[in-house]
């Protein structure tokens, strides 16, 4: 992996970039640095730090130019990065998300099965096999980009994006999987539906998933889906796995 | 009864905004907030509110409001025409950029905003509306904010206070530090994703604000900027001011409602001191750009903040009976030398001066 380098976003942000985003390792380094920076801020350090956005290849550092300078914060974060590179990373949180791939919730299952040459059951099995890594959350509140999709399912985005993808849709495109936390336009292939809420502004935190977490999909039948959709139990990390 | 400001007609695109929903970007939750932080700050200071209090952001034109409280102090920051109709039928024009005390039944009509996209209406004490994730800001695309995260519809807006102490009112006495000249840019974060002449083209050309601009981004019409390869990058973090360039080569300058991450290469980022000016820009306005370093940008922003504080420290009292407070004017003139005296509140300003 190349050494991190820093890129400028004006006088309110810079990004510490670890790679091109296609290698899974930079994502882990980003999550570790973000965790260390949050900890430093909680103990009174990193004055002027406004926000941190872990992404697939970089950590965006947003700062207030009235209380900090880029030069100071960049130096402090480089020191922190050297320290975290030496330390063993904490174990990631793990989540198991139910997904129903009944045809009512999987409008693109047949097309994906045809395009990949796999049968529908094999597509579902390959969707639910990996332990995905939350590479970043962006695009919409709570929209988690999940890296680690089975290469056999790799397809470009749909040529005709849908004006409305229903909330909970489990989708794939290119090298990633995702769940739409709210209704939105979208061009990914829809393979199922998750009945749980992924963003609720009344929760603390409002989004349970975070960059660096591990996520697995667990297939459920329509009856189980309906029961979960009716009660919408709050998503909890899985202590077993 | 809850004191309210009743929106009889909301205006074309009126929303609640403050300094934004800050600290949630890692969850994909956008910041939103005022397009023009200077205007928001002035409106609040005129009515004595803390700087980040939620205001109504008015776009292009304003609402028709009725006071349903014993009295309320309001201020409009921005070049808009304001007319007041008392319950007696008496009508007068009110100057912007100063505070006014209104009484129950008063009708306030805020007309077209001239020379700015947005203007801000503050009420003393603020609106009695519960913040969402620490902010009253409205993000229109995500439908995120109090009151459903939408532009305001006709209806009552609850106020924190039922009455306002009589005067003195306050007025702006010196020009606000919006800055002028070319918009300043820091090259990057992905300037190297473009052809070698793309940055030179951006810095030597005139761009026009496109009509398809909105709170998420300003579309710039002018010479196209070419990528060396693909326009798409692996999505990364963005901030307001980033100039992202999709495959068609036409730059989009991201504004208050931008998403937290994006997948287009960004050639440069407008400095934070120029964001209020950009937030006020109207479709058809022409923009030119100039490159600065991060350290220069930080210094410009700090100087702007000091100038803004000077403006707020020099807000001058106005006597309630309509006469100019000569002593206050004299003091302000001693400080700034920039008092024009053309905002005398009794004589309505002519259309040309609003």
From TrEMBL, chain A:
<keyword id="KW-0547">Nucleotide-binding</keyword>
<keyword id="KW-0067">ATP-binding</keyword>
<feature type="domain" description="Carboxyltransferase">
    <location>
        <begin position="4"/>
        <end position="209"/>
    </location>
</feature>
<keyword id="KW-0378">Hydrolase</keyword>
<protein>
    <submittedName>
        <fullName>Sensor histidine kinase inhibitor, KipI family</fullName>
    </submittedName>
</protein>
<dbReference type="InterPro" id="IPR010016">
    <property type="entry name" value="PxpB"/>
</dbReference>
<dbReference type="InterPro" id="IPR029000">
    <property type="entry name" value="Cyclophilin-like_dom_sf"/>
</dbReference>
<dbReference type="GO" id="GO:0016787">
    <property type="term" value="F:hydrolase activity"/>
</dbReference>
<dbReference type="GO" id="GO:0005524">
    <property type="term" value="F:ATP binding"/>
</dbReference>
<dbReference type="Pfam" id="PF02682">
    <property type="entry name" value="CT_C_D"/>
</dbReference>
<dbReference type="InterPro" id="IPR003833">
    <property type="entry name" value="CT_C_D"/>
</dbReference>
TrEMBL record, chain B:
<feature type="domain" description="Carboxyltransferase">
    <location>
        <begin position="26"/>
        <end position="307"/>
    </location>
</feature>
<dbReference type="InterPro" id="IPR003778">
    <property type="entry name" value="CT_A_B"/>
</dbReference>
<keyword id="KW-0378">Hydrolase</keyword>
<dbReference type="InterPro" id="IPR052708">
    <property type="entry name" value="PxpC"/>
</dbReference>
<keyword id="KW-0067">ATP-binding</keyword>
<dbReference type="InterPro" id="IPR029000">
    <property type="entry name" value="Cyclophilin-like_dom_sf"/>
</dbReference>
<protein>
    <submittedName>
        <fullName>Allophanate hydrolase</fullName>
    </submittedName>
</protein>
<dbReference type="GO" id="GO:0016787">
    <property type="term" value="F:hydrolase activity"/>
</dbReference>
<dbReference type="GO" id="GO:0005524">
    <property type="term" value="F:ATP binding"/>
</dbReference>
<keyword id="KW-0547">Nucleotide-binding</keyword>
<dbReference type="Pfam" id="PF02626">
    <property type="entry name" value="CT_A_B"/>
</dbReference>
């Amino acid at each position: 992996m190349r050494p991190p380098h820093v890129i400028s976003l004006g006088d309110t942000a810079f990004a510490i970039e670890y790679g091109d985003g296609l290698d899974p390792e930079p994502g882990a380094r980003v999550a570790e640095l973000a965790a260390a920076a949050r900890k430093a801020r909680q103990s009174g350090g990193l004055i002027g730090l406004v926000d941190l956005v872990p992404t697939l290849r970089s950590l965006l550092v947003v700062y207030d130019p009235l209380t900090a300078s880029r030069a100071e914060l960049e130096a402090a974060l480089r020191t922190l990065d050297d320290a975290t590179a030496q330390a063993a990373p904490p174990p990631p949180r793990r989540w198991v998300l139910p997904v129903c791939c009944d045809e009512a919730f999987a409008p693109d299952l047949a097309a994906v099965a045809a395009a990949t040459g796999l049968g529908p059951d094999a597509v579902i099995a390959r969707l639910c096999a990996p332990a995905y890594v939350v590479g970043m959350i962006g695009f919409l509140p709570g929209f988690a980009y999940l890296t680690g999709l089975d290469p056999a399912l790799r397809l470009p985005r749909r040529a005709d994006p849908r004006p409305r993808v229903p909330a909970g849709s489990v989708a794939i495109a290119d090298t990633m999987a995702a769940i739409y936390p709210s209704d939105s336009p979208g061009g990914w292939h829809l393979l199922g539906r998750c009945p749980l809420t992924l963003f609720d502004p009344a929760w603390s935190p409002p989004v349970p998933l975070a960059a660096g977490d591990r996520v697995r999909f667990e297939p459920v039948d329509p009856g189980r889906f309906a029961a979960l959709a009716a009660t919408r139990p709050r998503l909890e990390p899985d202590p077993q796995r | 009864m809850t004191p309210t400001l009743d929106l009889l007609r909301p205006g074309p695109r009126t929303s609640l905004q403050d300094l934004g929903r800050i600290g949630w970007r890692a969850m994909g939750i956008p910041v939103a907030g005022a397009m023009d932080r200077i205007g928001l700050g002035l409106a609040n200071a005129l009515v004595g509110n803390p700087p980040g209090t939620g205001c109504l952001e008015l776009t292009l034109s304003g609402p028709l409001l009725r006071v349903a409280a014993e009295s309320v102090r309001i201020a409009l920051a921005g070049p808009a025409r304001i007319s007041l109709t008392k319950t007696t039928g008496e009508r007068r024009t009110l100057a912007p950029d100063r505070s006014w005390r209104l009484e129950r039944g008063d009708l306030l009509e805020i007309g077209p905003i001239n020379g700015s996209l947005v203007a801000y209406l503050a009420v003393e004490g603020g609106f009695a509306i519960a913040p969402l994730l620490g902010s009253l800001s409205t993000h229109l695309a995500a439908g995120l904010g109090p009151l459903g995260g939408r532009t305001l519809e006709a209806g009552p807006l609850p106020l924190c206070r039922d009455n306002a102490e009589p005067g003195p009112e306050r007025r702006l006495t010196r020009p606000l530090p919006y800055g002028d000249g070319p918009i300043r840019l820091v090259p990057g974060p992905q300037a190297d994703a473009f052809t070698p002449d793309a940055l030179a083209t951006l810095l030597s050309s005139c761009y026009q604000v496109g009509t398809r601009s909105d709170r998420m981004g300003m579309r710039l019409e002018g010479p196209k900027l070419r990528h060396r390869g693909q326009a798409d990058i692996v999505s990364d973090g963005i901030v307001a001011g980033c100039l992202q360039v999709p495959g068609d080569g036409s730059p989009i300058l991201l504004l208050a409602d931008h998403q937290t991450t994006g997948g287009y290469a960004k050639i440069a980022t407008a400095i934070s001191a120029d964001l209020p000016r950009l937030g006020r820009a109207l479709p058809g306005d022409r923009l030119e750009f100039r490159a600065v370093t991060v350290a220069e940008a930080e210094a410009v922003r700090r100087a702007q903040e000091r100038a803004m504080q000077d403006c707020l420290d020099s807000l001058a009292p106005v006597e309630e009976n309509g006469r100019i407070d000569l002593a206050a004017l004299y003091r302000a003139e001693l400080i700034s030398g920039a008092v024009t005296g053309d905002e005398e509140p009794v004589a309505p300003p002519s259309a040309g001066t609003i």
